Backbone:
């Protein structure tokens, strides 16, 4: 805005200001509309996911079954077999998108994500140890991942603590700890039998194969309230983006606010990771995509959540269908879809900038 | 290396390309650097002496100066010397590439892998092994280099598409995005081809072991070219650190500088990564370490990085040979030496931002 004002003639100042006000009002509208569109798309794709498989059903049919119009077999397929997977994709996508937005905002770095404090790397280490030492049932892998991820996040936070958690110090310590664990992971993968190593690689890419209600419900019980709390805390995030001093002046207790936001983001990530593995890239790319579509100045959490849900459910559809009957791990598709979409947005942005 | 931390030079007195105000500052920067060079030579000697068969230092010197064809001399000249040279070349190449990327993008998290080098190289290896059935390091090393170069070129095209002056954030995001796509395809292919997966996991970890001496000649050429390019960009790096607008106002050709830097990064990181594997953490941490010694001037920072990074890599290689029976890959040891140093640095002083 300031640039346009400086270059425009004094006479045009008044219209420019009113235009600015209008833009401010319509911006919330734009954000709401964006969220609704993303959610509608996500819901539609979720219906397609539920409908696809050995017993194909159209979206309309799926709707009928969901609202009680199905026979015994159909409702078993929809509710017991396929719905958990679609619900997991939506919930985990939203959780990862918000977690990423929180970290990118707190670190003021587009590369920020819960990976920065080593969560995903630590979770992978825990799961690898469970897979190679204990033999890796679903429960053992989940618990290993959860323990590994949380222990790593705690270690990073306390190693970086020194009269306050300086954002940049957190990043450096996180990089260091992640690098050590990543090296350990690679070493474990290299030393393992090739079959174990490949199973670990599938888990390490993040996969929704075989997700059922018994594992999903505890994760949802964690994700839904935490997601609500985080979205409510988004207001503080905007002020923290202005810098510690300004935020303090605005009445934010910087250190507790930052700690709470980090804890919430880590909880979101850990719930998703325990069930589905460290699904790559959603936390990193969803906030960036949402930000580019939303055109807001700061990092907004709600669009990031909706974008994350859409991205993950769409990726899951592709992961199931492209090489069917081979089921790719969803993380492999997430990186491709998210990456290609981000590349396209960047290229389009570049073109429109030259026209201006 | 208990050299005192150089005190910060009063920044107001110095333009981006001003020479250090006094000779004493140059000296204060130069002496620790010379000390580090000596340390590098010492590490290189250790890497010649230590291994599954320990060889006395005097024998090592003899082997270098006056080889008599004995078994020990043969081990040193044919196997350990090429390995040490590989470590020095690849280490400083990765370090400088990391320093250039961090300075150019003004992002402390940037590493050589961020411009798609690692993802491009590993996808190329997967294709080479999985599709063409090529096996062994010598077979796929050129594929890896080609993949790295192509990926970086593509990142550059996406990051710069249409924009008049390249925005570093766009470049980083383009690198992350393209890297993600390539590694996603690579992982998917590797999961379908177990043999490719097997070769990939051995390459990714990063090691100086089992590389043939044939790599050294092209690697030396690439590293020399990269060094010359990097040296040409030293002054522009200082200007870029002030922001694109200031750099433009000072008369620097920002776009051209970025292209040169990117070329240097591509050649250095591409060649080193193809030769030793994806040890990009070295390129990430060495510049952070170097900044402690060098102060803000990018040229000194590059010089320190060029010496510090190979010290870390060689040390990792030597330790990897003695820590466990058999051998621990240099890439693993590198992370376990480098990361604690990085953490200690981050805790000890107020972090030096890029």
Residues:
């Amino acid at each position: 805005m300031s640039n346009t004002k400086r270059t425009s003639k004094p006479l045009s100042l008044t219209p420019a200001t009113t235009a600015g006000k209008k833009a401010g009002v319509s911006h919330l509208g734009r954000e709401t509309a964006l969220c609704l569109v993303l959610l509608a798309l996500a819901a539609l794709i979720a219906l397609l996911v539920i409908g696809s498989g050995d017993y194909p059903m159209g979206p309309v049919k799926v709707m009928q079954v969901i609202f009680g119009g199905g026979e015994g077999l159909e409702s078993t397929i929809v509710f017991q077999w396929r719905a958990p997977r679609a619900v997991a994709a939506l919930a985990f996508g939203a959780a990862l998108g918000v977690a990423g937005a929180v970290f990118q905002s707190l670190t003021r770095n587009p590369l920020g994500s819960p990976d920065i404090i080593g969560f995903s790397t630590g979770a992978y280490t825990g799961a690898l140890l469970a897979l190679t030492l204990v033999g890796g049932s679903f429960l053992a892998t989940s618990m290993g991942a959860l323990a590994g991820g949380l222990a790593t996040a705690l270690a990073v936070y306390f190693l970086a603590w020194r009269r306050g958690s300086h954002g940049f110090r957190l990043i450096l310590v996180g990089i260091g700890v992640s690098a050590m664990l990543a090296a350990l992971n690679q070493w474990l993968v290299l030393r393992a039998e090739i079959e174990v190593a490949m199973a670990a690689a599938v888990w390490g890419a993040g996969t929704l194969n075989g997700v059922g209600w018994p594992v999903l419900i505890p994760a949802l019980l964690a994700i839904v309230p935490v997601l609500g709390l985080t979205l409510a805390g988004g207001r503080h995030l905007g002020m923290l983006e202005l810098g510690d001093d300004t935020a303090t002046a605005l009445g934010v207790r910087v250190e507790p606010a930052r700690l709470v936001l980090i804890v919430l983001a880590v909880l979101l990530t850990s719930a998703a990771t325990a069930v589905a593995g460290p699904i790559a890239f959603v936390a990193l790319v969803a906030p960036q995509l949402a930000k580019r579509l939303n055109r807001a100045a700061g990092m907004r959490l709600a669009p990031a959540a909706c974008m994350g849900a859409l991205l993950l459910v769409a990726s899951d559809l592709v992961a199931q269908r492209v090489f069917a009957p081979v089921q790719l791990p969803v993380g492999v598709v997430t990186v491709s879809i998210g990456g290609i979409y981000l590349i396209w947005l960047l290229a389009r942005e570049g073109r429109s900038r030259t026209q201006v | 290396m208990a050299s005192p931390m150089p005190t910060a030079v009063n920044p107001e007195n110095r333009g981006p390309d001003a020479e250090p105000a006094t000779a004493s500052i140059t000296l204060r920067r130069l002496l620790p650097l010379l000390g580090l060079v000596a340390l590098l030579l010492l590490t290189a000697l250790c890497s010649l002496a230590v291994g599954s068969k320990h060889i006395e230092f005097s024998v090592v010197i003899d082997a270098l100066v006056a080889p008599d064809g004995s078994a020990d001399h043969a081990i040193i000249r044919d196997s350990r010397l090429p390995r040490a040279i590989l470590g020095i070349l690849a280490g400083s190449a990765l370090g400088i590439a990391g320093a250039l990327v961090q300075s150019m993008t003004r992002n402390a998290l940037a590493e050589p892998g961020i411009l798609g080098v690692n993802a491009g190289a590993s996808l190329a290896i997967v294709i080479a092994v999985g599709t063409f059935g090529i096996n062994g390091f010598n077979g796929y090393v050129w594929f890896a280099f080609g993949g790295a170069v192509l990926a970086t070129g593509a990142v550059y095209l996406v990051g710069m598409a249409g924009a008049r002056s390249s925005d570093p954030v766009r470049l980083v995001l383009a690198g992350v995005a393209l890297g993600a796509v390539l590694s996603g395809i690579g992982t998917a292919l590797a999961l379908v081809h177990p043999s490719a997966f097997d070769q990939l996991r051995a390459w990714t970890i990063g090691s100086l072991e089992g590389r043939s001496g044939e790599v050294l000649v092209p690697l030396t050429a690439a590293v020399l070219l990269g060094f010359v390019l990097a040296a040409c960009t030293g002054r522009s790096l200082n200007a870029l650190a002030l922001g694109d607008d200031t750099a433009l106002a000072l008369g620097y050709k920002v776009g051209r500088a970025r292209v040169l830097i990117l070329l240097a990064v591509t050649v250095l990181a591409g060649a080193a990564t193809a030769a030793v594997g994806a040890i990009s953490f070295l390129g990430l941490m060495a510049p952070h370490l170097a900044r402690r010694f060098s102060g803000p001037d990018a040229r000194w920072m590059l010089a320190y990085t060029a010496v510090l990074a190979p010290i870390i890599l060689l040390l990792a290689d030597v330790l990897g040979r003695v820590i466990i029976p058999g051998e621990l890959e240099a890439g693993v040891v590198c992370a376990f030496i480098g990361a604690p140093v990085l953490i200690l640095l981050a805790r000890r002083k107020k972090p030096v931002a890029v």
User: Anything to note?
Assistant: Chain B has one domain: 56-348. The CA atoms of residues 37 and 307 of chain B lie 6 Å apart. Chain B touches chain A through 59 residues (CB under 8 Å).
